Amino acid sequence: MKFVWIIILLLLVGALVVVFDSPAPTRDNAASREAEDALLEEAANSVMEPTIVTPTQVTIPATPSQALANELNASVDERAATRVLETENTDGASAVDPSAPRTPANDLAIGKPAAIAEGKLRVIPSKFERLPDGAIVADDVWKITGDGTADNPYLVSWEFLASAGDTYTPRLNDFGFPERILLLHGKYIRVAGYLAFPLVAPTSSECLVMLNQWDGCCIGVPPTPYDAVEVKLVSPMPRSQKHAMAYGTVEGLFEVDPYIVEGWLVGLYMIKDSTVEQGL
Q1: pLDDT in tens, 58-111
Q2: Phi-psi region of 148 (alpha: psi -120 to 50; beta: other; left: phi over 0)
Q3: CA–CA dist 138, 183 (Å, integer)
Q4: Which residue, among 275, 175, 203, 181, has the nearest Cα to 234 in the 3D structure?
Q5: CA–CA distance, 166 with 175 (Å, rounded to integer)
Q6: CATH number of the structural domain spanning residue 135
Q7: What is the C-alpha separation between 111 and 187, in angstroms, rounded?
Q8: How many domains does the chain have?
Q9: Do 238 and 259 form a contact (C-beta atoms < 8 A)?
Q10: Cβ neighbours of residue 24 under 8 Å, at least 6 residues apart?
Q11: Stated pTM of the model
């Protein structure tokens, strides 16, 4: 038993020696600990509450192409508002007044081109109505003036002729052709546009009348079968200068005569026995 108490006494003495030998904290150690605590607190705050940086808005000056695009976009509405007026001035057609009274036009003679029997087109029926002034309204959209005679030809717009492309695409086996355009087949029409003559002869009895400018070679926009008409003139006329743009009004007997090569539509419209009045 004495041996146990001796061991306990020795342990107590050792503990007292360790306690009294430990150095007391100095002022420098306390300041260092306070600095460490401050740094730890700052780091904790930076983690808990991150700083939000607001990006600065930068204005990039418009390049010349961007400025041009903005100008074109700004004029879209203006061009759309004047499109009907331009059509009326150039093609003799005008917009349909939805409030104008109409009566069914059941007395119209619809042309039947040979292409129907040949399987080159399938007729899509249209609705025809008359306005009090005698003009024809086709499918509630298209207004056609005149009566289709040599003295009073139908006046049509290029948009009207080009609308056949919405349903008639032979290369895709779409042969649906609007009846409203077949109304013109075998009738006299008047259409104004740009003229292109063959470049190899000083005079010609043939030409193209087109919606867009084209010199017949490499300047301008080449026509499509929907916005160009092959013209057979009554008498030959001198062509314009090489690469010159000519404009005129064509009158003659209109035909729907699709010309298809390997499934591709090459030509669609023709005016025979026609006369041309050059100039705006």
Answers
A1: 444 444 445 544 554 444 344 333 333 333 334 445 577 787 889 998 889 999
A2: left
A3: 10
A4: 275
A5: 11
A6: 2.40.50
A7: 8
A8: 1
A9: no
A10: none
A11: 0.65
